[in-house]
Amino acid sequence: MKRKNLHSLLAGMLLLPTLFMACKRSPGGELQPVADKTKSGLQNFVPSAYALNVVYFVPSDGDTIVNYRARLNGILQQGQRFYGKWMNYYGYGDRSFGLPLDSTGKVKITVVKGALPKTGYPYEGGGNTAIGELNTWFAAHPAGKHSEHTLVIMPASTYASDGNPGGVPFYGLGRWCFALDYAEMDTSYLGQNTTLGNRATKWIGGLMHELGHGLNLPHNKEKVSEAADPAKGTALMGSGNYTYGKSPTFLTAASAAILNNSQVFRTSTATGIYGGGNTTINIIKASYTGGNIELKVKFSSTQTVNNVNVYNDPEGGNDYDAVPWVAAPSGDSFQLSMPISEFHKKTGNYALRIRFLYTNGSSTEISYPYTFVNNEPVLDISTKDELNKSSWSITFVSSQEDDGPATNLLDNDQATVWHTQWKTVQPAHPHTVIVNMNAIKSIQGLAFLQRANLNGSLKDISVFTSTDNVTYTSRGNYTLTNVNSKQYISFGATISAKYIKIVTASNYSGSHYAVLSELGAW
Ligand code: ZN
Questions:
Q1: How far is the CA of 54 from the centre of ligand 1 (A)?
Q2: HEC sequence for 241-302
Q3: pLDDT of residue 16
Q4: What is the pLDDT of the chain when averaged over all its residues?
Q5: CA 102/CA 81 separation, integer angstroms
Q6: Which regions of the chain are under pLDDT 70?
Q7: What's CA 145's distance to the chain center, in Å?
Q8: pLDDT at site 317
Q9: How far does residue 127's CA lie from ligand 1's centre (Å)?
Q10: CB–CB of 452/408 below 8 Å?
Q11: What is the crossing angle of helices 206-214 and 68-89, to 10°?
């Protein structure tokens, strides 16, 4: 009972205009809250230059559900205020996703009739079928397309014995997202501890979560302190679809940083939106001191990076449990301090996923593995000083494709790879490549960079070195990691070598070829 009252109270607070601390960005560091209560920011957004496409998609044997325009108008305008509240909180101003409005100020919902009956749009695969038809519809009705982002609402096609609706697609697919409609899906039930109230949280909260995906958001989880903060609570893009309207639910700073570049949050039109981009991490220094993971990164990018999201993602649980931080870069570098007291789990393997956010709305993510041992993170990911490769050459390669020469291993460009033959012949492992360092060098190990998309990453290898390309010494067998960041092997001692020979045994797709972007030595 006490819990129910607390939830009702908090749900009520969620919907009220509330003054929050605004945030300003500090160059090179994380967002720092500052006291700036000049705006409540809940009612009057700066108009967006682009609007979300809102489509009510009706199978050929179905119909819209009673009162849908008024109910969905209420849901979407409340959702717009929810998103806008958190954009304002993190210092991005009075902005939210744009909604298309009709002459009465209500959300314009476009009804599109599907070509197939209900059974043609099942949960599995039904989304792509609808997208195909809607792309055809948009091509024939260009004035009906306001942006690249589309929310597709479909009438529920099945109902469980307790009345719970379902049966239609309910997920995000790129910039498309799907949600369902049923007769009692209405904001008036949100926050009630009743069957219809709980159902409203599940499906309206679910709509807001899927909409997040359709606005470019990945999953993430609240920090420990945020979970305990009655003003924040549960991240919408974690399990906030089960708390929205019922108990405190919020957008993380990382989500807001992505939405800041989303097309439908823009207050002026722009060209080149979602034009892609590439980023290379040139130096990364990661350490664990004083209870914090300290991270310093230097990068180069083909696009303007306005924020960097760093996700600490435990193995398993997909990305729902990834705890994020945001850094505003200063020039070509950023640093972050991440207290592990904010982590929910201090055991097992983690991925440190560094996502560079471009002002054009695209992003690039580079992932590093680390692990917790005795409740402390072991971060063996810092950059080592590699030898300059400008005078290096390839002495021998057993197989290379015409567009994947082994010289690509030496060009410091992750976009170009050594790829063994696959077009006309498909030779199997082992494949061999020998690199000539041009002089006898003292080295302690090697550096590897897998191809960026990790398609068929190199797995098991043997390493040999030589000073004369005649007598080779084995330096051991290694299993490379399936990550798109720089990784190192250590010989455990400093050795002298002029030639490095790599013999492959397998790749991560279990197929015949070897592919690798860069090979270096340190
Ligand atoms: Zn999701």
A1: 19
A2: HHCCCCCCEECCHHHHHHHCCCHHHCCCCCCCCCCCCCEEEEEEEEEEECCEEEEEEEEEEC
A3: 34
A4: 91
A5: 18
A6: 1-44
A7: 25
A8: 86
A9: 15
A10: no
A11: 60
**What is the Å distance from ligand 1's center to 177 Cα?**
10
314 CA distance to ligand 1 centroid (A)? Answer: 17
324-383, pLDDT tens digit by residue? 999 999 999 999 999 999 999 999 999 999 999 999 999 999 999 999 999 999 999 999
Spacing, Cα 447 to ligand 1 middle (Å): 36
Task: Report the separation in Å between the CA atom of 231 and the middle of ligand 1, taken as the mean of its atom positions.
Answer: 22
What spacing in Å lies between the alpha carbon of 241 and ligand 1's midpoint? 9
Tokens of 208: 């807001």
Cβ–Cβ under 8 Å, residues 190 and 163: no
pTM: 0.84
306 touches 31 (CB < 8 A):
no
Rounded Cα–Cα distance for residues 419 and 511 (Å): 13
Q: How far is the CA of 458 from the centre of ligand 1 (A)?
A: 31
CB 109 within 8 A of CB 68: yes
Specify the pLDDT at position 44.
55
Residues with Cβ < 8 Å from 157, sequence gap 6 or more? Answer: 59, 62, 118, 121, 166, 167, 168
* CA 79 to centroid of ligand 1, rounded, Å: 16
In percent, the amount of the chain with pLDDT more than 90 equals 89
CA of 157 relative to ligand 1 center, distance in Å: 21
**For residue range 368-426, what is the model confidence (pLDDT) as tens digits?**
999 999 999 999 999 999 999 999 999 999 999 999 999 999 999 999 999 999 999 99
Rounded Cα–Cα distance for residues 294 and 278 (Å)? 24
Of residues 368, 258, 263, the one with CA closest to residue 307: 258
Render pLDDT for 273-330 as a digit per residue (tens, 0 to 9): 999 999 999 999 999 999 999 999 999 999 999 999 999 999 998 999 999 999 999 9
Q: What is the DSSP string of 303-340?
A: S-EEEEEEEEEESSSTTTT-EEEEE--BTTEEEEEEEG
513 CA from centroid of ligand 1 (Å)? 35
Residue 65: partners with Cβ closer than 8 Å, 6 or more residues away: 155, 156, 181, 182, 183
> From the CA of 176, how far away is ligand 1's center (Å)?
12
